[in-house]
Amino acid sequence: MLAKLDYDQLTNCMRCGFCLPACPTFRETGLEPESPRGRIALMKAVVDGVMDPDQAFEDQMNHCLGCRACEPACPADVKYGQLIEQTRDAIEDHAEHSAPVKGLRKLFFKGVFPHRGSLKWMGRSLALYQKSGLRRVARGTGLMKLFPEHLREMESILPDATGKGVVERIGTVYPAKGEKIARVALFRGCIMDVMFADTNVNTVKLLSEAGFEVVIPNDQVCCGALHAHSGEMDQARGLARTNLKVFKEAGVEHIVSNAGGCGALLVEYDHLLHEDPEHAELAVWFAESVIDVSRLLVERGRLPEFADADVHSGQSVKITYQDSCHLRNVMKSSDAPRRLMKQVANVSFVEMKEADRCCGSAGIYNVTQPEMAGQILEHKMAHANETEARYLLTSNPGCLLQMKLGVEKHGVSDRMEVKHVVDFLYERIAGRTDDK
Ligand code: SF4
Ligand code: SF4
C-alpha cells in the first residue's frame, strides 16, 4: 500500500466529515469505519504502519460500493475513487483466494471479459440455457436451490442473452439521418453487448436520428472497470491501451458511452495511464473524447420528435429516474437524461427521493455483498414506490438489473417497468420506421 497509494490524497482529507451523509454504507450503519472519512483513516493507518491490513481492514474496504458519492461532497477534492482502487489493487497483490474463487476470477477477468469471442460464446450459452428449456429443468429439479438465494434472484431477472451483438446486427458504420453533425464511435461494452444488445442497437439508431454518423470499432475491448474495481489494475491498463489504439484509428469526434459504469472508467483513462509515457498523451485525448449518450444528444444532437409516453393510449404517463452513481458523480451527467425524458409527449416526470443515492448494484457488489446491497435496495424501493411511476428509467445496465430485482421482489412489476433511458426514447420516436 505504501508503494501504491497516493499519500498526498490521504493527507488531503481534513476529516471534516462533509462526506458522511452522502455515503450509503455510513447511512445504513452509522459506523465511522463504514464512511469515506473512516476508510481513508484506515488506509492512512496502514500506510503509516500503525495497523496491519488484516481481514477486518479488507472487509471494510470491500464494503465500500465505489459509488463515489463522497467525492462531490468533499470540499478538499479528495480523490476517494482513486484511493479505494489503489487499496484494492494492493490488497489483491497478496490475496489468498480459495481455489474456486481464484478459478472464477481467472476465468472471467482473463478468459471472458477481454475477449469478444469468449463473450459471444457466453452469450450463446446463456441464450441456449434461457430458451431451450434447460432453465425450466434447472428450476423444476431444484438444481437452482444449490445456489445462494441472491444468485437465484439475480438469475430470475436476467434479460435474454445473445451472441449477436451490435456489430453483428447493424455493421460497423451506421449513417446519420439528414445532414451529418459529427462522426462518433459507440463504446459497446462487454456484458452490455451480450445482455443488452438491443440497447446498443437503439443507441446507434437514436444517435443516427439525431444527426450523428456512428462507427462501432469491432476490435474494441472491455473498458476494464470490473478489473479496476476488483484490484486487477494491470489488466485494466492493458485493456485501456488496446482501446486507445482502436478508437484513435476510428477518426471520431466523440466516443459515446451508454453505460455509466463503463463511461466512468473511460473518462479516467488519463489517470489510469498517467505513469505510462508511451500512452499518457493518447489517454488524455481519449478521456476528453468520451461522452455519455444523453449529454451528446442534449448538447449537439438534432433531437427527433418523441411522441406519446404511452405508446398504446397516448395518455399522460408518470416516469421517474434512478441516477447511475458513476454517471452522476464521475461523468457529471445528471441533468441531460432528465431533460431528454421530458422531451417525450405526455410525460409526467416525478423526481424520486434520493434518486442520487446508490441502488446497491455497484458493479458486482450485489453479488459479493448481498446483505448490504439488499438493505440499500429496500430503501430505494420505498422511494420508487412513492413515485407511483409507470416507468423507472436508468442509464446503466447494473442499476437497471438491480431496480428490476427490487420491482420483482416488491411484486409491482405489473405497474412499474424498468428501462434504459435510450430504449424508452428510441421506442417513442414519432414516425420511426426502421424497426429492429
Ligand atoms: S469530505 Fe473530504 S476532507 Fe472531509 S472527511 Fe470526507 S474525504 Fe475527508
Ligand atoms: S464510494 Fe460510496 S460507499 Fe464508498 S465511501 Fe464513498 S460514498 Fe461511501
From TrEMBL:
UniProt entry tagged with the keyword Metal-binding: yes
Catalytic activity: (R)-lactate + A = pyruvate + AH2; glycolate + A = glyoxylate + AH2
Chain ranges of the 4Fe-4S ferredoxin-type domain: 3-34, 54-86
GO molecular function: 4 iron, 4 sulfur cluster binding; glycolate dehydrogenase activity; metal ion binding
Keywords, in A-Z order: 4Fe-4S, Electron transport, Iron, Iron-sulfur, Metal-binding, Repeat, Transport
Catalytic EC class: oxidoreductase
Cofactor: [4Fe-4S] cluster
Keyword Iron among UniProt keywords: yes
SUPFAM superfamilies, alphabetized: alpha-helical ferredoxin (SSF46548)
Cofactor comment: Binds 2 [4Fe-4S] clusters.
Entry EC number(s): 1.1.99.14
Stored PROSITE patterns: 4FE4S_FER_1 (PS00198), 4FE4S_FER_2 (PS51379)
Short name of any one Pfam family annotated for the protein: Fer4_8
Reported function: Component of a complex that catalyzes the oxidation of glycolate to glyoxylate.
Name recorded for this polypeptide: Glycolate oxidase iron-sulfur subunit
